[in-house]
Amino acid sequence: MVILAPMPGHKVHIKCFGCQMNKLDTALVTTALMDAGFSLTAGVKDADVVLINTCSVREHAEARVLSHLGHLKHLKRQKPNLIVAVMGCMAQRLGDKLLAHEAVNVVCGPTEIPRLVDLIGEALERNAKQLAITPEIRRENESHSASLERFESAYGRDGVDDGSVPGQAFVRVMRGCNNFCTYCIVPHVRGPEVCRSPQAIVEQVRKLAEQRVKQVTFLGQTVNAYKYRAGEKTYCLADLLSLASQVEGIEWLRFVTSYPSAEYYDEILAVMASSEKVCPYLHIPAQSGSDRVLHAMNRHYTAAQYLELLNRARDAVPGIALAGDFIVGFPGETDEDFEATVKLVRQAQYRNCFIFKYSPRPGTAADRWHQDSVPAEVKQRRNVELLAVQEQISDVLSRQFQGQTVRVLVEGPSKKAHVNPTDGADNPQLVGRTSGDHIVVFNGPLSLAGRFADVHITRTSPLTLFGTLAPAPALR
Ligand code: SAH
Ligand code: SF4
Ligand code: F3S
Which ligand is nearest to the CA of 61? Predict the structure, then answer.
């Protein structure tokens, strides 16, 4: 690897698509770029480098990036020295096809991010195209893992504006995925599952706490399957949560995403029930309510087993907030299969649910074996119907908060703040989340961002609670 001298003065504009994994990768790379002397710019026009972190999970996610690259192609005709770097899952999936795009100078897969700063440096120096993707990504490679680990564990944020929400940080506990759900591109672009050591994870949590981080979210594609053998002991997610909850300064711990499996489940629920720091929230995607479709998706549970897991969660952690994901229009999904999904959603009583239309991903088993047989309009109708069922449930659950006072971790100004007139610049509309991940909108001073506040709920909608700052906000 060529280590280049720091490059002071270069301005980089960063745009991030995709899931929390990508947000974390963006934060890591931003920190590395700052260390190398780059500065951030909010505008594309005055940037020397545009860096885009990309997602491949559905075709639509890729289409958004391609349209962005289309704009950059025009901009580059006026600014030929502009360097465009594409990182993330789409970089790994498309590799040199993406590099062939007129706008693109650097393509770097998610498992190659430790090299990204050098690649950008080389591109700036020589204006030559640079490609870094992992060949045979499914093969475990220890030196590769070690380099990712070194890159990741150096992450301490240290005052860098890395795009994170104030007071919050993500910590990866495992990379990759071994599940191969038949519709999913993730194992093909993020490689095999590798769990990080508990020591490295807890050390990182400690560093983040020193940076006034109050909430840490553990990330893994199947985070509840975390397993790490050290001598006689095998650590599971419950152990990580217990260890991290002893770190002074950390007030809330979350973890996403959970796979519906019984392994370590009771242990995780027990630590959630007993520790005030572990948020009573479980994101546990079902994907479908039809056993036939679940089998075709290579999901290893039935709808009945899934519901049993939810019941166990509710028994162990009263008041727990549950969230799910569903795919509608998987190949061969009949009206009957879809009705089974609707039934499951009604029974599950999720606080919130994310619903996606099936999108065939090249190279996945579902795409190789099946026609994308459900017509677009049927997918659309099922999507709308399922959303409506969930909205009703969310509405009823939200109303229970009317008149209550809830504690939130404040994120910052609400996105709609500039549309909704607020009562003064000193008291803008803020947004925060409860430990159960309910979104709460209220007016208060900006200085609350990254802190806890108590909010009295005066109005509710299916997805948002509205309220006023309680008289004596508990500032911590
Ligand atoms: N690892 C997580 C989530 C991975 S992707 C998990 O297993 O739960 C996030 C969500 O995108 C999935 O839960 C699924 O609902 C959806 N998804 C993944 N691939 C998809 C595809 N090809 N078409 C539509 N939705 C998809
Ligand atoms: Fe994709 Fe399934 Fe792995 Fe989740 S568990 S990342 S849906 S293959
Ligand atoms: Fe995440 Fe999208 Fe990759 S969901 S893991 S950024 S394909």
Answer: 3
